[in-house]
Backbone:
C-alpha cells in the first residue's frame, strides 16, 4: 500500500509542496480575482459569519476576503504544508487576525463540524478531483454549510491560444488528466468539468443554483498578457513530470514544446483567452432550522 505522498504524486497534477507552484498560484489567484471579482454580485457577508476556502493554496483569496471583511472569520484548508506555510506567513505579514489556515485533504473525510460555515468557496479543484472525489467534496461542502449557506465554485476547462506549441502541450496535459481520471471530456481535449458542476450541485441537494461566465484576454498587447503568460509558462513546466508519468510524452519532447511555446507567446501576433465559469447555490433551509443571519443575496455586493 502506497504512502500518502505517493498517492498525492499520482493524483495531483502539480506538486503541492513546491515553492514554485505556490508562487505561480499567488499570481494566478490575483488575475482570476481581477477577472471574476471576489464573489458573485449580490452576495453580502454579515458580522460574525464564517467562511471556508477549500484548497486555498497560498491563501490569496482568503487573505483578501479577510482584509476587506474584518467582521467575518475566514478559514483556509489545503493538502500542502508548503501552501499552508505561505498562507500563514501572508496573513501574519498583513496583520490579519480573522483568518487561519489548516491542513486538510479534501479528497478524504473532512474533520470539520456539521453546519459550521455560512459560505464555502473553492477555485480550480479540477486538477486533483476525479468524478467520485468531486461528488465527495460537494457532499462535504453541503454538510459543513449552515442551512441557507452558500457554495461558490469557480472552474475552467481550457486556456485558448494561437500558439501551436502551447496547444500541443495542452493536449498532452488534458490527455494525461484523462488517463488519471481528472479530465471529464470524452476525448480528453480539455478538462470538461464546467458542464458537470450544476449537476453535482443539484444531485447534492443545492437549490437556487446560478452561474456566470468570465473571460480574460491575455493576447499580446493586452494589460494581462505578461502576468498570465508567466503563469502559463510556469504551469506548463511544473506539470511536465505528471505528463511523463502518464507515458504520453518524453521529457525531451516536452522541453522542445515548452521553449517554442514561450517564443510564440512572446510574438506580437499572439492571441489568447482564458475562460472561467462561476456557479453558486444554497443549502436549503429546513423548517426545523431557519437560522437567521445566514448568507443573503438580496442586496449589496462583494467585489
Residues:
Amino acid at each position: 500500500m502506497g504512502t500518502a505522498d505517493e498517492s498525492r504524486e499520482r493524483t495531483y497534477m502539480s506538486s503541492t509542496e513546491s515553492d514554485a507552484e505556490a508562487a505561480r498560484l499567488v499570481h494566478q489567484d490575483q488575475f482570476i480575482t481581477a477577472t471574476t471579482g471576489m464573489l458573485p454580485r449580490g452576495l453580502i457577508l454579515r458580522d460574525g459569519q464564517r467562511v471556508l476556502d477549500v484548497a486555498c493554496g497560498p491563501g490569496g483569496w482568503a487573505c483578501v476576503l479577510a482584509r476587506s471583511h474584518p467582521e467575518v472569520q475566514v478559514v483556509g484548508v489545503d493538502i500542502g504544508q508548503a501552501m499552508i506555510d505561505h498562507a500563514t506567513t501572508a496573513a501574519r505579514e498583513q496583520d490579519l487576525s480573522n483568518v487561519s489556515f489548516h491542513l486538510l485533504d479534501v479528497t478524504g473525510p473532512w474533520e470539520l463540524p456539521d453546519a459550521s460555515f455560512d459560505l464555502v468557496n473553492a477555485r480550480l479543484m479540477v486538477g486533483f478531483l476525479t468524478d467520485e472525489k468531486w461528488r465527495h467534496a460537494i457532499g462535504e461542502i453541503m454538510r459543513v454549510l449552515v442551512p441557507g449557506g452558500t457554495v461558490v465554485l469557480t472552474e475552467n476547462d481550457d486556456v485558448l491560444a494561437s500558439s501551436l506549441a502551447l496547444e500541443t502541450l495542452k493536449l498532452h496535459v488534458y490527455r494525461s488528466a484523462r488517463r488519471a481520471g481528472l479530465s471529464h471530456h470524452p476525448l480528453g481535449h480539455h478538462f470538461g468539468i464546467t458542464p458537470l458542476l450544476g449537476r453535482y450541485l443539484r444531485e447534492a441537494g443545492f437549490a437556487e443554483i446560478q452561474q456566470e461566465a468570465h473571460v480574460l484576454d491575455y493576447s499580446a498587447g493586452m494589460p494581462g498578457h505578461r502576468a498570465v503568460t508567466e503563469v502559463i509558462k510556469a504551469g506548463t513546466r511544473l506539470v511536465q513530470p505528471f505528463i511523463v508519468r502518464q507515458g504520453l510524452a518524453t521529457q525531451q519532447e516536452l522541453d522542445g514544446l515548452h521553449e517554442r511555446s514561450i517564443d510564440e507567446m512572446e510574438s506580437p501576433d499572439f492571441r489568447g483567452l482564458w475562460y472561467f465559469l462561476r456557479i453558486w447555490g444554497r443549502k436549503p433551509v429546513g423548517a426545523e432550522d431557519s437560522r437567521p443571519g445566514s448568507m443573503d443575496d438580496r442586496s449589496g455586493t462583494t467585489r
